[in-house]
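Design a sequence for this backbone.
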């Protein structure tokens, strides 16, 4: 069943607020066999909202339209007014909605005001779904085989409604006529265009119900294999067969087949092995530590990081020998390996990654141009290290080095079980 998501709010268009709602909704819908085919963002203008609703209702053709936003008590929240115009109805006072709002205010010890009370006014043509996580009610409309559901834009309220009300009702109404499977493969050593050329025949031979998507990241490419079919075993079998083909075609270039970003994968791998990690960073300037700690619960496996930008810090805190620095230079295999091992000693962790390079835009030499980065990962007495030539763009070099370092640690952990 096709779904069109509409997110509403000027704040989304001007970048003041990032639209995380539609991404989360799309993920949840696919898990339940609903395929998101369109996503639209519009501002707080009634004519634009009406046009977006009308386009979505026609595009889905007997499908589902989900709206978020514009249901608050202030003047710029005009979604209900637009819905009343579209469905040619008025508003009425809902005692059930009012009781829900009053209960929420009573529980928090706050007093209701006129604007809050007005949120109990709901369209005549809808079925009201009570929002136990907030004051704006959720409304369910039906027309010519289409279902339209309007929810608050506050992420916590939308998520509660989707999990506890909207998804269960959609599953009850439509069942599950589509088995959707996605599998991710992380690939290194290719540009996006070069990888597309290498996989031309592979893509042409995919079954008609399968797709391959390229999701490039700095220095890496995520390949997403997707199967859309009414037969769950067929979807699983097809995904497994095509992944085997990818393995043969991309031997030596597959870095990981786990879901999630590299920092999430590292965290999962460390938790499984009950290990703790640290970082020793020069050119990445703490970026890797920031990626790791952006994941909730990372305190269970991350001990800390040392930003060893200056050679004196490399010597004093990480124990890099003076001889190695003088003979090979800071951007070298010898130094980056000692940095990784020194991080394990200094931070009392089980494994570590280290980076040393020339991020740019200055500082390069003919032997070591801008974009040259040495990366090392160490664990259990083993160290792997590689030299990379990234780009001339500083931010790109830092991002690529950081992601590559985490995938290198994953590689080391996977090959030393």
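Sequence:
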């Amino acid at each position: 069943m096709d779904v069109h998501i509409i997110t509403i709010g000027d704040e989304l268009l001007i970048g003041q607020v990032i639209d995380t709602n539609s991404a989360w909704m799309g993920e949840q819908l696919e898990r339940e066999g609903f395929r998101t085919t369109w996503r639209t963002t519009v501002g707080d203008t009634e004519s634009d909202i009406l046009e977006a609703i009308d386009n979505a209702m026609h595009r889905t053709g007997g499908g589902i339209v989900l709206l978020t936003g514009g249901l608050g008590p202030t003047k710029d929240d005009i979604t209900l007014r637009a819905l009343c115009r579209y469905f040619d109805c008025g508003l009425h006072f809902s005692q059930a909605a009012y009781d829900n709002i009053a209960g929420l205010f009573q529980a928090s010890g706050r007093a209701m005001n006129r604007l809050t009370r007005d949120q109990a006014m709901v369209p005549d043509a809808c079925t009201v779904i009570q929002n136990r996580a907030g004051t704006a009610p959720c409304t369910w409309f039906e027309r010519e085989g289409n279902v339209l559901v309007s929810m608050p834009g506050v992420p916590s309220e939308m998520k509660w409604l989707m999990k506890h009300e909207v998804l269960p009702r959609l599953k009850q109404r439509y069942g599950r006529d589509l088995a959707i499977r996605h599998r991710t493969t992380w690939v290194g050593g290719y540009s996006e265009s070069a990888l597309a050329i290498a996989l031309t025949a592979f893509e042409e031979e995919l079954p008609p119900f399968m797709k391959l998507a390229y999701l490039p990241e700095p220095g890496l490419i995520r390949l997403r294999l997707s199967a859309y079919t009414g037969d769950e075993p067929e979807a699983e079998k097809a995904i497994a067969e095509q992944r085997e083909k990818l393995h043969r075609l991309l031997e030596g270039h597959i870095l990981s087949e786990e879901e999630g970003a590299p920092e999430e994968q590292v965290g999962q791998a460390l938790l499984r092995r009950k290990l703790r990690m640290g970082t020793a960073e020069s050119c990445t300037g703490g970026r890797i530590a920031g990626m790791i700690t952006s994941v909730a619960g990372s305190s269970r496996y991350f001990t800390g990081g040392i930003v060893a930008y200056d050679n004196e810090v490399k010597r004093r805190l990480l124990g890099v020998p003076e001889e190695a620095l003088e003979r090979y230079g800071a951007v070298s295999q010898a130094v980056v390996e000692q940095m990784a091992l020194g991080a394990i000693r200094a931070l009392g962790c089980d494994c570590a990654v280290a980076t040393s390079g020339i991020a740019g835009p200055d500082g390069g030499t003919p032997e070591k141009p801008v974009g040259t980065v040495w990366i090392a990962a160490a664990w259990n007495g083993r160290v792997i290290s590689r030299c990379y030539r990234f780009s001339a763009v500083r931010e790109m070099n830092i991002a690529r080095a950081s992601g590559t370092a985490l995938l290198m640690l994953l590689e080391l952990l996977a090959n030393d079980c």
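The chain has three domains: 2-174, 179-256, 262-414.
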